[in-house]
Amino acid sequence: PPSRELPRIRRLEESVVNRIAAGEVIQRPVSAVKELVENSLDAGATSINVIVKDGGLKLIQVSDDGHGIRYEDLPILCERHTTSKLSTFEDLQSIRTMGFRGEALASITYVAHVTVTTITKGQLHGYRTSYRDGAMEQEPKACAAVKGTQIMVENLFYNMAARRKMMQNNSQDDHAKIVDLLSRFAIHYEGLSISCRKHGAARPDVHTVAASSKVESIRGVYGPSVAQSLIKVEVSYNDPSSAIFEMNGLISDSSYVAKKTTMVLFINDRLVDCSALKRVIEVVYAATLPKASKPFVYMAIKLPPEHVDVNVHPTKREVSLLNQEVILGQIQSAIEGKLRNCNEAMTFEEQT
Ligand code: ADP
Ligand code: MG
Q1: For residue 196, what is the DSSP state?
Q2: Ion ligand 2 neighbours, Cβ < 5 Å
Q3: Which atom of ligand 1 is nearest to the CA of 151?
Q4: Are the beta carbons of 268 and 302 closer than 8 angstroms?
Q5: pLDDT of the residue at 322
């Protein structure tokens, strides 16, 4: 009978399910770096140092000076769905931390070897232990430690042959992606000192110090020609019947000419993409400063947390906002105004 040829439905082993899911959350080395740095920020770090080897495939090490992890929490630290940040679904409405799913560390342990060293306030020594497939591998050992947490991720994708092979030919590209990511964090978080270096390199690829201004950080990271061209834009909009938001930005003027747009966008301190906003901005530039139509744009938007849905797929950086049309319209006219002014000032200078 044909039924014998029908494929049987079987339940996948849990370890297979977890590895597949982890490969979706951690698509590339840069995804792991983002998760680790966000955890450091959630832990109140003011200093984050990242070391990368082979574009992150051999080693990603993130050290912070945050509040550390309690000894008693270490056994479940890397299990799936263990978090200190969320307890009820309703908490999501007012969530202030970047993490909340308790999925990142677990995912990383399914596709790499993870070693954690941490010390909490008032302790004389820290603890170190390692993890694989969500589980702690041995009892934490006492060790010397400075303030905070260090997470070491080694041999990323060691158990995903195809992915690893693909990335091995691409380590320059992955390193660049990591540097780009950390540059963005460095600009937005003024109280944060952040550095990223290649393993064994004398000089870091990114290094900003806490309390330097945004323009200074941008100068350090993106160079003087960007920094010199920046104009401040601000919108403060409060109409409960349509939208409530604040925007603070720095955008390039007509003196900055580039091949592609750089858009550094933070919404409620989360690094995100919003292609609709990017498009609106490019249209304004093309209309007012056609020669400089690929701008540098840094923008920080604050919204009531309930107006942004953060509970999207873990890898999706793209957000959508409540009342997006109103917000985009307001930002568009603020930028238009600034660019017109700067155009007129230029024309005036040329005439006199
Ligand atoms: P989430 O960030 O969604 O809670 P993660 O898997 O990223 O999930 O982290 C799990 C938990 O581990 C966090 O809730 C936090 O309590 C702890 N943790 C992770 N990284 C750090 C760190 N660098 N410093 C202090 N605690 C950390
Ligand atoms: Mg996290």
Answers
A1: E
A2: 39, 99, 104
A3: 23
A4: yes
A5: 85
pLDDT in tens, 111-141: 999 999 999 999 999 999 999 999 999 999 9
Distance from the CA of 347 to the center of ligand 2, in angstroms? 50
Q: Which ligand is nearest to the CA of 84?
A: 1
The CA-based angle 306-307-308, given to 5 degrees, is 95
Within 10 A of 320 (CB to CB), how many other CB atoms are there? 10
pLDDT digits (tens, 9 = 90+) for 159-171: 999 999 988 888 8
Question: What Rg, from alpha-carbon coordinates, does the chain have?
Answer: 23
Residue nearest to atom 16 of ligand 1 (CA): 84
- Give how far Cα 37 sits from Cα of 33, 44, 176, 188, 241, Å: 6, 11, 16, 13, 37
Q: Report the separation in Å between the CA atom of 111 and the middle of ligand 1, taken as the mean of its atom positions.
A: 17
Give the integer Cα–Cα distance in Å for 324 and 332: 12
SS3 169: coil
| Residue showing tokens 């690929």 | 294
Q: Determine the distance separating the centroid of ligand 1 and the alpha carbon of 74, expressed in angstroms.
A: 11
Supply the residue whose CA is at minimum distance from atom 2 of ligand 1. 99
Task: List the domains of the chain with CATH numbers.
Answer: 14-208 (3.30.565.10), 222-351 (3.30.230.10)
Q: Which residues line ligand 1 (CB under 6 A)?
A: 35, 39-40, 42-43, 64, 66-69, 77, 83-85, 99-106, 149
* C-alpha–C-alpha distance, residues 94 and 136, integer Å: 31
Task: Kindly give the distance from the C-alpha atom of residue 104 to the centroid of ligand 1, in angstroms, as a whole number.
Answer: 8
- Ligand 1 centroid to 109 CA: how many Å? 13
pLDDT in tens, 34-66: 999 999 999 999 999 999 999 999 999 999 999
Most confident of 66-80, 267-281, 308-322: 66-80
Residues linked to residue 128 through DSSP beta bridges, in sequence order: 117, 141
Mean pLDDT of 220-235: 94
- ipTM confidence: 0.99
Task: Answer yes or no: are the C-beta atoms of 106 and 122 closer than 8 Å.
Answer: no
Tokens representing 25 are 């959350």
Q: Whose CA is nearest to atom 12 of ligand 1?
A: 77
